Amino acid sequence: QEKTAKTPVVKWGQKPDRLYLTIPLPDVTQPEIKLQERSITFKGRSKGQEYEVKMKLLRGINLTASTHAVNQWSVSFDLPKLRKEPCWKRLLKSKKTYPWLKKDHDRWYTQECQNAKELWRETYFTKKMQGEDPSSGSEDEGETKDDGAPPDPKAKERKRWEGTLEEYRKRAVPRRKEQAKAKRRIS
Q1: Using one digit for the tens of pLDDT, what is the confidence trace for 82-135?
Q2: Would you tell me which of 20, 152, 155, 173 could form a disulfide with 13, CB atoms 3.0–4.6 Å apart?
């Protein structure tokens, strides 16, 4: 008869640019760890009991820079986020709460999270006041648009030029032919 795998406790913490996960299982044998951009799978055996957990993350992580370590007390993960951003409100894509998922207050950097949030807000409202789309991301950073195409480097310049032309057209003095037509219409 086969024992069913238990879900281990997962403690998580974060900084604006990285996540920290700890699975506090002593003497893990046969660990199977699979990292994907938006999910983490862990399987292992501790003190004769099978443990397994699959987590779908809220946003992506940088796989090439991610590391994990198995020691005699726990399995720990250091997972850089794809971008530095305000701290996530939750670890998982699902909004459900799970009894096995706990915040690791030793790895929770509240001040850094608050600074990142304030910086994000400042950038957002600055763009909004400049008439730019704040949700499009920073074009200066070379991000791609939703359709996967790279941003047009001249788009910002072209938009500014069109705005300047429109301003000049509003201020322009009408030509004489148009003035003559206007006088004929009046009389």
Answers
A1: 888 888 888 999 999 999 999 998 888 888 888 888 888 888 888 888 888 777
A2: 20
CATH number at residue 40: 2.60.40.790
Q: Are 53 and 42 in contact (CB under 8 A)?
A: yes
* DSSP of 115-168: HHHHHHHHHHHHHHHTT--GGG--GGGTPPPTTSPPPPTTHHHHHHHHHHHHHH
The count of structural domains within the chain is 1
pLDDT at 33: 92
On whether residue 5 sits in a domain, the answer given is no
113: its two tokens = 């999270």
pLDDT at 5: 85
Is there a domain that residue 88 lies in? yes
Q: Is 27 contained in some domain?
A: yes
Domain encompassing residue 94? 10-130
Cα(74)–Cα(79) distance, rounded to whole angstroms? 16
pLDDT < 50: residue spans in the chain: 1, 139-149
pTM: 0.64
Identify whether 106 is part of a domain.
Answer: yes
